[in-house]
Amino acid sequence: MLLMTPGPVAVDERVIRAMNRPAIAHYHPEYFEVFNETTEMLKSIFGTSGDVIILPGSGRVGMEASIVSIADPGDRILCIVSGTFGRWFVQIAERAKCEVKILEGKWGGAINPEEVEKILKEEEFKAVTVVHSETSTGARNPIETIGRICKGHDVLCIVDAISSVGCMHLDMGKMNIDLCVSASQKGIGGIVGLALVGVSERAYKVMEEKKEICQSFALDLRRWRDQFFGHDYPRPYPVIPSTHLVYALDEACKLIVEEGLENRLSRCCKAAQAVRKAIRALGLELFPEEEIASDSLTAVKPPEGISESDIVRTMREKYDVMVGGSVFELKGKLFRISHMGVQASMNYLIPTLAALERTLVDLGYKVEFGRGVGTLIEGI
Amino acid sequence: MLLMTPGPVAVDERVIRAMNRPAIAHYHPEYFEVFNETTEMLKSIFGTSGDVIILPGSGRVGMEASIVSIADPGDRILCIVSGTFGRWFVQIAERAKCEVKILEGKWGGAINPEEVEKILKEEEFKAVTVVHSETSTGARNPIETIGRICKGHDVLCIVDAISSVGCMHLDMGKMNIDLCVSASQKGIGGIVGLALVGVSERAYKVMEEKKEICQSFALDLRRWRDQFFGHDYPRPYPVIPSTHLVYALDEACKLIVEEGLENRLSRCCKAAQAVRKAIRALGLELFPEEEIASDSLTAVKPPEGISESDIVRTMREKYDVMVGGSVFELKGKLFRISHMGVQASMNYLIPTLAALERTLVDLGYKVEFGRGVGTLIEGI
Asked: Which class in CATH covers the domain with range B259-379?
């Protein structure tokens, strides 16, 4: 089975092999070394001089940790929503009793940063949330501009970079991102089960000035600075991330360091462009507007009269390729081909396009075999 | 390195091998089968006709989920505290703005259930929290009696069974436990990274009657019933537990089923008795009172003049055996030998006792070599 879903992504076999070891105590001195090493690599991948905190969980755990660690009940949060994952910030912040204002953009379209600027001029907020690569629609948001606007208004900038870190250019420091949420199983190429949260100095300061103690014991990011970072061995983990998943993550980070982050981003970008071109060569349409398409995944509209779920199921059952369907509010409107990490290569993408061509023909859509594949070979 | 810490515990090599597989989507139909199979085995291990929910996280994530899923701000929670882990419930409930009453027992001593009865007669509570096997002290609490008392007063009984499930007799149904929290890396013998929460029908009912929506998006257990259990494929996970850790957990559960739960509990119980006898044969004292000692681990007082950390470090560095030290409030007062899962066997316990004998002699304590080991061979 070729795994071409936008998270979990297929991973290098070295990542799997890294977990092939006996159980080890998370407080074993040797393991601390690995944990520190992983954290240091993550800091350079996130582009931060602050901390990157590894929490047990998936991306949404990291999203929740970033909100509840900085916000008091009643605090105002501006949530930019143009997809399913952006909407989760709304739900999380509302449950934490924040006052949420939603800036809703077209799903698959671009957010106009001027709207953010206008709102921040008129009203006070503690934080703005925005999704970098909206995995549900395949579109990207202009986080650099939004980060600058947030900084200008002294508002925290919280970014869901779950499917972008390791695939798309991101630099917490230069982009003024205060809380940057990612996860192990997407662009970084590890195994699902860890949330990763980059924390800026400014975000820590807001946590310190928070009126109430964080509502969560497990997700209080401030505890990491107070109990963990900057302390020597032995030091307690505020909550325990899985040792074996950290070994896998460590190996995934090493693969990024060995390739070189910039090389990897270029490879993903080139693969993404080639996939988009191949999709168009098949006469299909992208779901997002092309100029703001994410480089992590390509979201494609099913051709008229053919259902997205038939495409996904046929590719999986008949051709052994698993691509992503559409979820929640977007059900039926698109399917998604991932090109993160190892997926951004001929060996993964060529069979995927081949399976798509065969599937489309099976379902009654006219395709000249090799047209998508040929375009991809040329472009990648 | 022989891993004899009370979580993570050493695991069967089949558990490690179960993770030696490529990445798979958590929404792949084949994986759903494995997830369902694991859940069903867990239900029989927990002794519940309700659900057992698998959350990403360690035990304390499960503890937090159990509190925030049932409690509204201002709700009264009675926390029975006789060790570090019992105290965490207090911190979790206070952060969730519950009104907490603490019933503090002697650390390492037994809670008198009559005190619980007396308090519940006089005051109203929504839930009582109690730790079954207090991993920090090595003592056990009479959860069966406390469960019965809670039921009599229509109060939810929340049990931290993190180090007892899979080692000590526990039956949610018969013992009237409403929320039973455990974790993958302890008595069940999986890999660290999953919290397991058994939920009774009564607990679900309280969740439904809760006035406010749960403060947490990721830890709201009610979402599992509403979105997941009882629904056919495809169904969304409220939060994603790590696929690879679930494969490991699945294998760990299979090992329990193959051995037979009762056989496993007897083996653990016998090993625990033998270890306690061996410790006494060396002239050392247990930390908890013997009649309420946990069968999951043995907490031992260091002999006078010898520090716990020297014992732990010497065993690890010189003899390649890692036992648990003491943590937080109990620092220096005890060290802990685990005997859960595969550890409850000669191959793990004999070298551990041998290393302890050598270590004690190294540190100036008189031991007749083979005395502890001999007692253990006889008793196990």
From this structure: alpha beta
For A159, phi and psi rounded to 5 degrees? -115, 130
d(CA A10, CA A324): 13
Between CA A262 and CA B25 the distance in angstroms is 28
The token pair at A330 is: 């977007």
Question: Scanning the structure block, which residue is given the tokens 């076999």?
Answer: A13
In Å, how far is A188's CA from the nearest CA of chain B?
13
Closest by Cα among B187, B205, B196, B200 to B255: B187
Q: What is the pTM of this model?
A: 0.97
Contacts of B231 (CB under 8 A, 6+ apart): none
Whether residue A56 and residue B213 make contact (CB cut-off 8 A), yes or no, is no
Q: Is the peptide bond before B234 cis (omega within 30 degrees of 0)?
A: yes
Q: For B239, which of A8, A60, A218 is closest by C-beta distance?
A: A60
Residue pLDDT, tens place only, B38-85: 999 999 999 999 999 999 999 999 999 999 999 999 999 999 999 999
CATH number of A12-257: 3.40.640.10
Structure tokens at A292: 């703001």
Domains of chain B, residue spans: 13-257, 259-379
Assess if CATH 3.90.1150.10 describes domain A260-379.
Answer: yes
Fold of B13-257: Aspartate Aminotransferase; domain 2 (3.40.640)
Report pLDDT for A329.
87
Residue B273's nearest CA partner among B286, B257, B258 is B286
Phi-psi region of A57 (alpha: psi -120 to 50; beta: other; left: phi over 0): left
Chain B residues within an 8 Å CB radius of A248: 244
Q: How far is B355 from chain A (nearest CA, A)?
A: 18
Q: Which of B110, B157, B88, B181 is CA-nearest to residue B102?
A: B88
> Testing the interface with B: which of A21, A163, A216 to mutate, by most B Cβ within 10 A?
A216
3-state SS track over A254-280: HHHHHHCHHHHHHHHHHHHHHHHHHHH
CA distance B157 to B169: 17
Q: Give the separation between CA B87 and CA B85, rounded to whole angstroms.
A: 5
Question: Does the predicted interface ipTM exceed a cut of 0.90?
Answer: yes
Give, to the nearest 10 degrees, the angle between helix B84-95 and helix B59-70: 40
pLDDT of residue B235: 81
